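User: Can you predict the 3D structure for this chain?
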Amino acid sequence: AEATARQLLAARPDHLPALEALAGLLQQRGQPAEALALWRRALAVNPLDRRVRGLTAFCTLSAARRLLVDG
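Assistant: Here is the predicted structure, written as structure tokens:
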């Protein structure tokens, strides 16, 4: 799934479903910083999408927590 999403994003960097899928996968794997970059790209593609805004905010908090714990 990750390789497919990355290939699709290489060809179409603004493909919202691929951005969301890869961001969600990375977030589940405990990579909030990389996931956050993808959520922000998804938000730039569709800034009015409430779900994407919420997931971006959640990932922002996860990334901040990770920084506090890891130092």
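The CA atoms of residues 25 and 60 lie 15 Å apart. Helices lie at 2-11, 16-28, 32-45, 50-70.
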